[in-house]
Amino acid sequence: MNTRILTFLALLMATICGAGSACAEALAATDSVKHVASKQTLLNLNAANVEQLMALPGIGKSKAEAIVAYRDAEGPFNTVNDLMKVKGIGKKLLAKLSTSVEVR
After folding, report:
1. CA torsion sign, 71 to 73 to 76 to 78?
2. Three-state secondary structure along 75-97?
3. CA 78, CA 104: separation in Å to the nearest integer?
4. 3-class DSSP string for 13-72
5. How remote is the C-alpha of 87 from its chain's centroid?
6. Main-chain dihedrals φ then ψ at residue 101, nearest 5 degrees
7. Which of 41, 63, 65, 93 lies 20 to 30 angstroms, CA to CA, from 85?
8. Helix (H, G, I), strand (E, B), or coil: what is residue 104?
9. Are 100 and 43 in contact (CB under 8 A)?
10. What predicted TM-score, i.e. pTM, was given to this entire model?
């Protein structure tokens, strides 16, 4: 959920309920949902297969295969920036991918 919506709901619940313990529990639950909603699962470049890589923005079959081929030939990626060593991946694509991938 959008952070603004969650904040609005929390304020609305506080207004309706007052400062009672039920409201405190409801606000704590809202904070918990907000925390979970803000977490994003990142794709591990060193374990992802072609199909998983193809789900990333700007990555089609040929680039996904190039990533896997590079990894197989050169070994695991040390940083996300190592993606730029793969043919067809430049600064713009790396910027799109950087919020979706990680290296473990």
Report:
1. negative
2. CCCCCHHHHHHCCCCCHHHHHHH
3. 8
4. HHHHHCCCHHHHHHHHHHHHHHHHHHCCCCEECCCCCHHHHHCCCCCCHHHHHHHHHHHH
5. 24
6. -125, 160
7. 41
8. coil
9. yes
10. 0.63
Look-up of token digits 């409801």: 26
Q: Would you state the structure tokens that stand for residue 64, as one six-digit string?
A: 């996904």
Q: Which amino acid is at 22?
A: A
Are 57 and 97 in contact by the 8 Å Cβ rule? The answer is yes
Query: Tens of pLDDT along the chain (104 residues)?
Result: 455 665 665 555 555 656 555 555 655 555 544 444 445 799 999 999 999 999 999 999 999 999 999 999 999 999 999 999 999 999 999 999 999 999 99
